[in-house]
Amino acid sequence: MNYAWEAALMADRMGIPREKVRYIPAGDGSPYTEVVQEDINGIPFGETGVGINPLYRFGMIFADICSLNHMEFEQGREMLFRVFLQYMVQLDLRQGMDRQEYAARFLLQDILQGMYGKDAAETVGLFEKNKLRGLLHMILGVYECGSCTELFRRAMRYLYPDSIVYESNDQAGQILVYVGVGETEEEAGKIRFLAAVFLPLACSVRLFWEHHFGVLDVDETMTVGHMVLF
Description:
The protein contains eight helices and eight strands. It is of the alpha/beta class. It folds into two domains: 4-94, no CATH class; 99-228, no CATH class. Helix 6 (129-145) runs antiparallel to helix 7 (149-159).
């Protein structure tokens, strides 16, 4: 691990909010890396925070502020350093973002602020962070193509790889969904969110969780004890 933004990405994977990461100026860092850690293959988050070599990239800014010759205003200088590093990490991570990426960020912000309803704001936080980005891009597709079963099918397959989405031949607008996971209140909330976002209002959804409904001439679905009568 070399740069501070890599520590931020590791925090994402560990479920640590980026704003909770504390960047601490280290006086004994290597001149070859920005993140200071004893074990280069270990986790950089210590009890006090992430040690950063302030001179690695920002020597012109911090050479005087972080000088060992200055003993006064230590807390103020450390606070300034942490604020600056938080800003620079966010700037680093935004390099190369296109219009779609910015649109996805603004969409997430709107959802969390309740502009799409209280239920949506609560439910979107249930999705895994590494899946949420792809889901947001799919939601943006609704603005371009409108609600449709195909977008719902893609979202289900993205989040639930074993899922299968059918359109009923007997009842117009009925969507049959084999989810492939156990039923929980959290999973049910996620699928209600997906249905509300991707499906037309006239559609109704019937869910089959762990067991697929029986289909004639398809032996895999006709196993006794592992199928649902429908």
